[in-house]
Specification:
The chain is about 35% helix and about 25% strand. It is of the alpha+beta class. The protein folds into two domains: about 260 residues, L-amino peptidase D-ALA esterase/amidase; about 120 residues, ArgJ beta chain, C-terminal domain (Ubiquitin-like (UB roll), Roll), CATH 3.10.20. The strands form two sheets. Strands 1, 2, 3, 4, 5, 6, 7 and 8 form an eight-stranded mixed beta sheet that branches. Strand 7, helix 5 and strand 8 form a beta-alpha-beta unit. Helix 7 crosses helix 9. The longest helix is centred in the middle third of the chain and has 24 residues.
Length: about 400
């Protein structure tokens, strides 16, 4: 994982440029991924009923053939823009295709930014020309990877890049994931933009099921603010140029899924750490549930509670807010069996035992809550299932960012 000395998977090039779509002058705002040959592709898209034009078009393109390019812009979501938005998305795909010698349906289009504002096509046309020109010029892999990661950022404060490598039948396989996401983060599904590329040869059905399951274990276990965006997608492209025998199942599939899970989990945790205005990364771990679904529901109820999140920001060991969130989760629970602990900095304290205050030290609890990496540990005492959800605290910074996002 990280941004330094990462070797791009065979068959891919990336680039990013600034063309003035984003509000901040000089910010990179158009990114391109190009594969030298058609890729096996899989994707998961937002479940929001209000879907942006690039999502609608990309769903169609994904089903019409193998993908060879991704064009993404930040600063404008091209959502709620009607038929003009669809037309602009198709034009963007067509322009990329023409510049790279592809068919338009081989291009995935992604946008992120302000909703309800037409995409500034004069800038977008120039941006596509520039980024195609740039991707054709030689440079270091690290530089281009960083460019692309910055081009898709909105309120993110840091680029989000994760990588992994392993061998299949003696052939080196590389996987890289690049994502953006800081606000409007909540299942289902990915609640951000994530682009994962690998040079592995993988059967299409294996690629699709692997991504779907990895998303469920990572991005769908993440919440920053309880809002699901109109533009979200997680895309996985496999170039097949590592030279391995195609992964169709067995131990090779398990190994591939293990490393894909690592990439997705790393990216999900980065998004929680970089939540808008966040000062703390928090894992909510629920055990003792009757089912996995029940454990996740309880964990998510706690993780998205504004009262819990503001208490975390204020270092307030108010476990009453946590047990209240468990109680309104919709799951059948037995309050008299619930234990609640917090952990951080190598220390742990029990704040609630069998649904009651065990007489813990608030001073000691406050000391733990001052750490930037925290765990809320819940034992429901009703079964053997468990789940972990990632979140962050809720601060004044979140309000400041979102009170003026459009203007």
């Amino acid at each position: 994982m990280g941004q330094n000395k990462i070797n791009i998977p065979a068959g891919f090039k990336l680039a990013g440029i600034a063309c003035g779509i984003a509000k901040k002058k000089g910010k990179l705002d158009v990114g391109l991924i190009y594969a030298s040959a058609p890729c096996t592709a899989a994707a998961v898209f937002t479940t929001n009923t209000v879907k942006a034009a690039p999502v609608l078009v990309s769903v169609e393109h994904l089903g019409s053939g193998r993908i060879q390019a991704v064009i993404a812009n930040s600063g404008n979501a091209n959502a709620c823009t009607g038929q003009q938005g669809v037309k602009d998305t198709l034009e963007s795909a067509g322009q990329v295709a023409a510049g790279l010698g592809l068919e338009p349906h081989q291009v995935i289009v992604a946008s992120t930014g302000v909703i309800g504002v037409p995409l500034p096509m004069e800038k977008m046309r120039q941006g596509i020309k520039q980024v195609i020109s740039r991707i054709k010029r030689p440079t270091t892999n690290d530089e281009r990877l960083t460019e692309f990661s910055q081009a898709i950022m909105t309120t993110d404060t840091v680029p989000k890049i994760a990588s992994s490598a392993f061998k299949v039948n003696g052939k080196q396989i590389k996987i890289i994931g690049v994502a953006k996401g800081s606000g409007m983060i909540h299942p289902n599904m990915a609640t951000m933009l994530a682009f994962i590329i690998t040079d592995a040869a993988v059967a299409g059905n294996v690629l699709r099921s692997s991504l779907r399951e990895s998303v469920n274990r990572s991005f769908n276990m993440l919440t920053v603010d309880g809002d699901t965006s109109t533009n979200d997608m997680a895309l996985l492209l496999a170039s097949g140029q590592a030279g391995n025998k195609k992964i169709k199942g067995g131990t090779e599939e398990k190994l591939f899924r293990l490393h894909l899970d690592k990439i997705c989990l790393d990216l999900a945790k980065m998004m929680a750490r970089d939540g808008e205005g966040a000062t703390k990364f928090v894992e909510v771990a629920v055990s003792g549930a009757k089912t996995l679904a029940s454990a996740k529901q309880v964990a998510m109820s706690i993780a998205k509670s504004s009262l819990v999140k503001t208490a975390l920001f204020g270092n307030d060991p108010n476990w009453g807010r946590i047990i209240a969130a468990i109680g309104y989760s919709g799951e059948k629970i037995q309050p008299e069996k619930i234990n609640i602990s917090i952990a951080g900095g190598g220390q742990k304290i029990l704040m609630c035992k069998s649904g009651r205050d065990p007489g813990f030290s608030e001073t000691a609890a406050k000391k733990i809550l001052k750490h930037t990496d925290l765990k809320i540990l819940i034992d429901l005492g009703s079964g053997r299932a468990s789940a972990v959800v990632f979140t962050c605290d809720l601060t004044h910074g979140y309000i400041d960012i979102n009170a003026s996002y459009r203007t």
